[in-house]
Every structure is written in structure tokens, then in C-alpha cells.
Description:
It contains nine helices and four strands, in the order H-H-H-E-E-H-H-H-E-E-H-H-H. The protein is mainly alpha-helical. The relative contact order is 0.16. The model has no long low-confidence stretch (mean pLDDT 86).
Amino acid sequence: xxxxxxxxxxxxxxxxxxxxxxxxxxxxxxxxxxxxxxxxxxxxxxxxxxxxxxxxxxxxxxxxxxxxxxxxxxxxxxxxxxxxxxxxxxxxxxxxxxxxxxxxxxxxxxxxxxxxxxxxxxxxxxxxxxxxxxxxxxxxxxxxxxxxxxxxxxxxxxxxxxxxxxxxxxxxxxxxxxxxxxxxxxxxxxxxxxxxxxxxxxxx
Length: 204
């Protein structure tokens, strides 16, 4: 069974539980435990030379890769843990009297959409709009997975070779924010599930 057919066949409650399993898997990754706090950058403008100095502090690359292996499950549409699909499912089956929970789920839907598809900071490089969604797609498909998409690999290399690697700045800026949002959504749904705040269809 491929991923897309698995997502279609899984019941809503099973997809939600798979999402929560992925959240716990993400939180247990060494990158979360040791590397995320060191994932940062510093930009300094030197008046004397007129140059911009950019210092990047990245985590262990193997830890980062294993983290992305789990993180991408929340982004890929065919994955049962796709966060847009999970938020839609939870909004659909939340109990009618749970008005506050419904509102919070709606807020998270908007927050995630803004943080992922637009970004809390807007960065461009030439004519490219380097949104978090665009940048993560370059990293996931141009460097780490799917045997690397050659076109995306070349584009990523070109962007990384610039004096100010904006593509990496967006990654360093947005990834901790997106990760925190995922864990917050996971905590909300886990709590609501324990409190029987959803009315999922009975499984056959």
C-alpha cells in the first residue's frame, strides 16, 4: 500500500494517532534535544569595508538529516501526519460544544499557513520569494531525499554560493518556529483526545 492510499484508507482517529506518534518521534530526535538551540545565525555590517559578514551556526548534519526525515512527514500531502490534513480532520470532528477548542484549531490553521507558506520574515533573492515552504522544498528534495532533484540541487547550490546565503537564513529562522508550532498543535490535540473532545466515526 502506498502512502497516498494509506492516508485515504486510515480512519480519522488512526490518522490523528499517527500524527501524535510523529510528534513524539520528532521531539525525541537528537536535533531537538541538542541541536535546535544552536541553530542560529549572526549578521554584521562592517562600515569600514561596506561588507556584510554572515556567521552561521548549524547543528550536527546527521542529526539534522534524521530530524528532517521525521519533519517532512508533516509537510508531504501524501503522509497521514500531514499537518494541514490533521487540522482539517480535527476541526471537522470536534464536538459541537467545544467552541473554544474549535477556535484554537482555526487559529492554528491560520498560524501554520502564515508561518509555512509566507514566513514570519519575508526574504527574496532576485526574483525568488524564499518562503519557508520553498526553502524547505529545496533542502528536502534538492539535498537530502528522493535521490535529490537535480534542478533543485543546482538551484540550492547557486543560492548558497551568494555572499549573503538568504536561503540558509530563512531555514535557520523558520525551522525552530515551525517546529514549536507543530509541538504545540500536538500537545493541544493530545489533550483534547484524552478529554474526548472529538466525535470521530466508529471504526468498522
